[in-house]
Amino acid sequence: MTGPDHMVSLEDQIDQWRGYVRRRQAIHAVDVAELEDHLREQITVLVNAGLSTDEAFLVAVKRMGNLDAFSREFAREHSDRLWKQLVVNAADAGASRGRAQIDAAAAVALAITAAVLIKVPALFGLQISEDAGFYARNLSLFVLPPLAGYFVWKRQLAAGTVRWLAAAFIAAGVFANIYPFVAGSSTEVLSALHAPIALWLVVGIGYAGGRWGQSGGRMDFIRFSGELFIYYVLIALGGGVLTGFMFLIFQAIGVDVEPFFTSWLLPCGAMGGVLIGSWLVEAKQSVIENMAPVLTRLFTPLFAAALVAFLVTLLWTGRGIDIERDVLIAFDLLLVLVLGLLLYAVSARDHAAPPGVFDALQVMLLVCALLADAVALWAIAARISEFGFSPNRVAALGENVILFVNLAWSTVLYVKFLRGRGSFMRLERWQTDYLPVYAVWAAIVVVVFPPLFGYA
Questions:
Q1: Could you list the pLDDT tens digit for every one of the 456 residues in the chain?
Q2: Same domain, 18 and 149
Q3: The dihedral of CA 138, 139, 142, 148: what is its sign?
Q4: Which residue segment(s) compose the domain that 203 sits in?
Q5: Nearest to 30, CA basis, from 275, 292, 217, 294
Q6: How far apart are CA 300 and CA 35, in angstroms?
Q7: Are residue 374 and residue 351 in the same domain, yes or no?
Q8: Whether 106 and 31 share a structural domain
């Protein structure tokens, strides 16, 4: 087999192998990428020696031997993993603790850096309460560069990649501050909302560590994003409880700590929490890996029921969707959560397993989300037809079109899989290949919309 079909066949085989390896308890998910690199190197050597790709794949897998035995050797070389205690001796465990302490120190240092960065503007007279627009536009620039720096350090990225990442953050900083925004204008709010989306892709390139061009690398970043969200929520809840207790005990002695909370604890804690949460994902990933599939199976039927109830109510009452900005943001976040549930289900699923009841439920969720998005698109188009174009309406139209395409083709691929006419891996590849579309649109909103709409 030669040509493009030959490459697709090899990638499908590697995808199946990757799914199998991920299910092995002895091998941690964050190690799969390095194991895959090892497999690809073996395949390349064998193909150069004259074997076909199918033969090279089989021989390379055979050479890697028993996965459990291989993982023991791999654990000795990468003894900073949680599962090292099962396969690594005491001397290796001591080295692992040293590495873990270095990682923790780096994460804490960068968390402090992010906390300091958000207070630097105050040295120039910019206060959060009085200059909310400035802080909103630059919020992602306080925390995402240190986070990208953490992954640059962890992944030992090449200098060329680091320069590209730095250039992206510098460009974002320029466009966030060079435009003469009208305070509180639609374009300023849209810029503040979309800059983190575009820059999150930049962080993903750093996280993937040279594997961004591979579907597996992008899927790992999607998985990291979801796990970080879970950890961040837990940190925020714990911080809220701590803040409440501090407020009560200081109030008991007549000390008002609210100014300290609003000016220091909340902004600095919010920035630092992103770095600490990222470190926890890297260090304690197995905890969330076990939790995420359970949460996916729990919330998929609940979200499906909520969307069904919404569509039935919509038909019953005949009411249209309110397309005010805040409502549309909440509505789009709901659709993004649906896609997030799909992505987690895809990442946790055995690609070789036959379709089941949960797959049918996923399709129902996708169809409901697709119908809801179609209703939103109709409402936005009607509003544009009646009142003309505005920054909010055009941004909402673009975002919902992008979501609609993603949902529609995901539904098609999932239905093909259910009917036995398509591979489940095509669905995963579609989801990961589509990621840059969101970042490109977000960049367009940040860069093009302000001058296009007169900074209003």
A1: 444 444 446 777 777 777 666 655 445 555 677 777 778 888 888 888 888 887 787 777 776 655 545 544 444 444 443 333 433 444 444 555 667 788 889 999 999 999 999 999 999 988 888 888 999 999 999 999 999 999 999 888 889 999 999 999 999 999 999 999 988 899 999 999 999 999 999 999 999 887 888 887 888 888 888 888 888 998 999 888 888 888 888 888 888 888 888 888 899 999 999 999 999 888 765 555 556 667 777 888 888 888 888 888 888 887 766 666 667 777 788 888 888 888 777 776 766 677 888 888 889 999 999 998 888 888 888 888 888 898 988 998 999 999 999 999 999 999 998 888 877 888 888 988 999 999 999 999 999 999 999 988
A2: no
A3: negative
A4: 90-283
A5: 217
A6: 32
A7: yes
A8: no
Torsion angle in degrees (nearest 10) through CA of 403, 353, 213, 221: 70
Return d(Cα 50, Cα 198) in angstroms, integer.
43
43 and 109 co-located in one domain: no
Contacts of 115 (CB under 8 A, 6+ apart): 267, 268, 269, 271, 272
3-class secondary structure per residue, 287-314: HHHHHHHHHHHHHHHHHHHHHHHHHHHH
Residues 138 and 105 in one domain: yes
**pTM score, two decimals?**
0.76
CA triple 252-255-257, angle to 5 deg: 110
Q: Which of 264, 283, 302 is the last residue of a domain?
A: 283
Residues 264 and 375 both lie in one domain: no
3-state secondary structure of 62: helix
User: Residue 152: what are its φ and ψ, rounded to 5°?
Assistant: -60, -45
Residues 302, 278 within the same domain: no
Q: In 10 A of CB 407, how many CB atoms? A: 25
Q: How many domains does the chain have?
A: 3
Domain termination residue (choose one: 87, 111, 128): 87
Under DSSP, the state recorded for 143 is H
230 lies in the same domain as 102: yes
- DSSP result, 357-410: HHHHHHHHHHHHHHHHHHHHHHHHHHHHHHH---HHHHHHHHHHHHHHHHHHHH
